[in-house]
Amino acid sequence: MSEIPKDHPRYASLMTREKIVEGVELGITSQQGLVAQGRGECFDYLIGEQTTASAFMAEKVAVAMLLLAEHPVLSVNGNAAALVPDSLVRLSEATGAPLEVNLFHRTEERVNRIIEHLKTNGALEVLGSNADARLDLQHSRAIVDSDGIYNADVVLVPLEDGDRCQALVDMGKMVITIDLNPLSRTSRTATVTIVDNVIRTLENMIALSHEMKGLEEAELRKLVEGYDNSHTLSDAVRQMIRKLEELSGL
Ligand code: ATP
Ligand code: MG
């Protein structure tokens, strides 16, 4: 890893970049993942590199959905595995949702490396290597486990691809995505879109899971039923417009 002085004004962002580069070096993250990270960074700038009130609300609803689910699954790709392996394990423990590796640029070697990486970070079991079921898609993200994503009712898909998000929704699943780009196909297709950095999101969701575990089922249902994803998306765009206006000195 490159040395980054702790007092560098962009320390957190640069450290994140280092983690993704390290992920590529370890054979966990694809090179295309670097491009996705860059796109995410740009949108993070526009949102002020903080969790907005509407993103926090989406995180709360997402936790309610995971706690209410009968068969929730947390899908893991190469970027998420490089950036937040320990948080994914903690969120899995806090919600009872198993982890499943699912890759766009899939090789069995990379799937196994990510499974091992998650286990090094405390996971006891990770799905994704059975590969015994298919979603209706023409690329590798179609390959899933029958006792994981294939039969799940709620799936959390951080940094997702638009096609698979659509395929999961078409199967009648509730899909939660984490995507800093409110304009992506994924953002527009998911049931709940969290427009926030995956690093901040997972920390918030872990804390919320512990807080909300004690809530009555009816209260959790009320949160989910009152949720409107189009409101979240327009709020994120408005937030970015405000930020640009502020920066332009208006
Ligand atoms: P889509 O396929 O949904 O139209 P896309 O092709 O633009 O989107 P992908 O490469 O498929 O994008 O998915 C990566 C998405 O993840 C991008 O929209 C990017 O903004 C977002 N992203 C990248 N890094 C982060 C991060 N650290 N936190 C949250 N979102 C991120
Ligand atoms: Mg895409």
TrEMBL record:
Pfam families: PPS_PS. Pathway: Cofactor biosynthesis; coenzyme A biosynthesis. Catalyzes the condensation of (R)-4-phosphopantoate and beta-alanine to 4'-phosphopantothenate in the CoA biosynthesis pathway. Homodimer. It catalyses: (R)-4-phosphopantoate + beta-alanine + ATP = (R)-4'-phosphopantothenate + AMP + diphosphate + H(+). Belongs to the archaeal phosphopantothenate synthetase family. It is an enzyme of class 6 (ligase). Keywords: ATP-binding, Coenzyme A biosynthesis, Ligase, Nucleotide-binding. InterPro entries: PPS/PS (IPR002855), PPS/PS_sf (IPR038138). Its EC number is 6.3.2.36. GO terms for molecular function: ligase activity. This is 4-phosphopantoate--beta-alanine ligase. ATP binds at residues 17, 39, 179-181, 185-186, 197-198.
